[in-house]
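Task: sequence in, structure out. Protein: Diguanylate phosphodiesterase.
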Amino acid sequence: MTKDSGCRACRAGTKLDFEFTMAFQPILDLADGSVWAYEALVRGPNGEPAYTILDRVTDETRYQFDQAARVKAIELAGTLFPRESATRLSINFMPNAVYEPNACIRASLEAARRIDFAHQRIMFEFTEQERFRDLDHVKGIVAAYRKQGFLTALDDFGAGFAGLSLLANFRPDLIKIDMDVLRGLDSDAGRYAIVSGVVAIASALDVTVLAEGVETAAELDALRGIGITLVQGYHFAKPLLEGLPPVAGFTPMAAARAA
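Result:
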């Protein structure tokens, strides 16, 4: 699909032939004990897994789905998030569905204005469902979103196509280290060294590191030792359909050190 055909699809307002909603999972800040953000995760209307929806997205409907998913996440956040909260909303998006960054962001901005949700609280995560077709185009998306005041994150870092080359090219605000890289971090010296190295590189580039998929207290302790402060995973909370789940197993870094 070309850029022009994508823009025509936007104007035509083509409807999707399936329904979906969002579940929310917290991203926690170990430094101050706060919920730093909630990630919006695609689900079926009755809580069906994301793949049951994503498998129905075609080349012809990718743009429409990407736009609808952003708006759905923002609208639900406007209903669920405390009104005076500064907690961020993290939204996954498909870079190959963005034809012209400033045009394709309009629906998101309009949704945020409509529900009085500050768009500076929104972070867009680059999903790794498919290889980026045009790196220069994606770099343009990152630049345009940053100019608009959004945060950007490179998801699944260390898995699939998300590696050092993308970090070097895009310089996002955050990288999310993939759970497969973190698994068993506490007992595997090699993984510990790799994650420590990633943190050092990110620090030199002024990029924040977020550890996703944390499942055990031992993994959390290892991440604290490396100096990672943003974490996400089942150890704290599973995603909740159209709701904000309670958080467990979470101690602020300062309190952990005092103990």
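DSSP finds eleven helices and nine strands in the chain.
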